[in-house]
Amino acid sequence: MTIAPDMPAPGRRFPEQLIYNGYSAPVRIEGDVLDLEVDGTIPPELEGTYYRNSADPRYPPRLGKDIFLNGDGMIHMVRIENGHADLKTRYVRTPKWKAERAARRAMFGAYRNPFTDDPQVEGMDRGTANTSVWWNNGKLYALKEDSRPTRLDPDTLETLGSHDFDGRLTSKTFTAHPKIDPRTGETVAYGYNVDGVASPVIELYFIDPDGTLTRTEQFEAPYPSMVHDFMLSENYIAFTICPMVCDWDRVKAGEPFFHWNGTLPTKVAVIPRAPGGTGSIRWFTSPVTGMETHTFNAWEEGSTLHLEHFFTGTGWLSQFPDVNDPANREQPPFAYRWSFDLASNEDRFESVKLFPQVGEMPMIDHRYATKKTRHFWFGTSNPALGPMLPLGPKGPPFTCIGHWDAQADKLDFFYAGPDSAPEEPVFVPKSADAGQGDGWLLTIVGRRAENRTDLVILDALNLSAGPVATLRFPARVHEGFHGIWVPSAAGEEAALLAAE
Ligand code: V55
Ligand code: FE
Q1: Which of 49, 184, 195, 409 is 20 to 30 A from 81, comparing alpha carbons?
Q2: Which residue's alpha carbon is at the smallest distance from atom 3 of ligand 1?
Q3: What pLDDT is recorded for position 154?
């Protein structure tokens, strides 16, 4: 690829913007560190690999500024084997990454806005593969909701290419938050904006444990909007449709991909999981307009469906402006259980705030996904334990990981220490048959004053006891989004399947 001479001089410096400076600054270094330093003792039960995704901008932004959701997918992997912990970081080689590598500058413009790209990349896949990772049938994928999964080698993190389920995925999009049913191993997922442009059609995907996409169904939301996460119970699929709307004319005009429009209602779709379920979809109206940020779990009790998620009264205004009120200020998310009596035909549900603590980046014991949740973990801050940190691009960084035990109605906290910010926690059970919550919580912790990162291992039911082990990275890795734990047994199982 050649650089067109009529282009403005490519920026060689990242601009003076929060997302390009301090602890949030691009890292851009791919590396391997064998045998991380360890404080404490890695639990012997912990044998496997932690993978997580981050958005680490490869080049200064084409338009001179950007939002943090638009960085290039960079995977962080920590493999723990025989008491050794090794770190590997690699960019996902998306078509975007390759084109920009060839041009040695940003070719793609604003978040999900193809009208802001260099004409030389017109029509190309714009996916950044930067949000989460998914494990299915011994295979690893990087996910971003605006594009298809990208398959990665789980040992080398080499990019193996875009995945379309042997041609069965016709949509150009696939959520970054698929749900795995622990009873069956089935993955339920969806895509929105399936043609790549704003549309209210949402498509459901049902994927067998062997990776076969077995069926697809469609339904229509009341308006086209960001559909970032959803919920799955034994018999139902639920979506909270929030008015973070996309208007394609605004996108064409170079405006942000999404805008918050609080005059539209927040709606809940409840869809039976059984084949043809979208034919009996039910819609509920939230009495409070707001946005679901991320979900914990969904489960049934008789004819009642419980949906547990973080919800905030405003949209994500720091990323996407309010169309009606530019002065509107973002509110913090709180955790709620919304309970629907499906035996009644009324358009109503009960809402209970689960705990008084602000939070985000929810985590559960995934062996209990679709079943009654007892243990809830999340990122949070607790000014009683330590001061708030300076604002980052995503808002105030967490200073703590919280744990709420619903049965005991008790909150417990891990305070990460001065100038330290934990990120999304990931739960690992101590053994396959350990009780709910009996396991470890892994969390990346940013040591902001040292410009360095750790992976901290906590006892999930005793956060305030502090780290069981701290795996010390010799350098900083970029702030990230979502991670998973893949036990090495799963790797062995996958290897056996592949050998058959
Ligand atoms: C989110 C993250 C995204 C995105 C849309 O966490 C929503 C919410 C990292 O990318 O594109
Ligand atoms: Fe997310």
Answers
A1: 184
A2: 69
A3: 98
